[in-house]
Amino acid sequence: MQVGDVHAQRTVSGPQVSPDGQWVAYTVGAVDRAEDNSDTDIWMAKWDGSERLRVTSSKEAETAPGWSPDGRWLAFLSARAAKDKGTQIWLLPRAGGEATQLTSVDGSVSDYGWAPDSGRLVFVLSPREEEPRKEGEKPKTPKPIVIDRYHFKADTEGYRTKPGGRLWLFDVENKKAQRLTADDLPEAQPAWSPDGSRIAFVSNRAGEAARYARWQIGVTEAKAGAVVRVLTDDDRIAGARGGRRRAPASADTLARPLHRRPHAAQLR
Questions:
Q1: Which of 60, 89, 91, 267 is the most buried (most CB within 10 A)?
Q2: For 63-83, how does the pLDDT look when each residue is reduced to its tens digit (9 = 90+)?
Q3: Number of domains in the chain
Q4: What are phi and psi of 266, to 5 degrees?
């Protein structure tokens, strides 16, 4: 094996089984040596392995595939429209056709979940640090870094100046986004109840400036401005146990692509 062979390796992750059980959507990551960049695309394979299809092929990464419960749509995350405008949710019609951008929110979406009725989504939105440059506009002088939290810097992340993600509700038909909770706290990992009336998630109840994070599980009604009922209140609970992943160690971790949970995982 040569050093150059490392760049030929492919990384497969995030498998999601379609509601009818016939297809599996997943991501394939690769390195482009010529462009000095990496790329991730979405593929689908039949359950019996008889067929494989590449469903995205843009130069920007497409991650986090997620089937709508009714099987009509395959959603994913990408900044393919404009990288400086943040990652958005896109929809690919299962019957065929081009993917279309669903959300156009100010910031970057890092995670999402379909409601059981396929008409709503909940997503985690991280605000942008600065406004995107207009075409032909010269780069602006970076603003001074203001340190307002105990953990202000981390390896591979740099300075932590951006607030953590917040949960938003989204109506697919009218494309309207609303802030889910009234709490100004970092939130992540939303999961719908089977009847679509409630949403469970984890949030850092200590706030972003605290020395120690206190990630706790909360539940709220699936409506804008709902009051959060905290289900756990134990300083020893550092993250969610069970399921697909643990709570992030920092708010900035939410900006990274996350493995999707199976759509069948529900709040009991």
A1: 89
A2: 999 999 999 999 999 998 876
A3: 1
A4: -135, 160
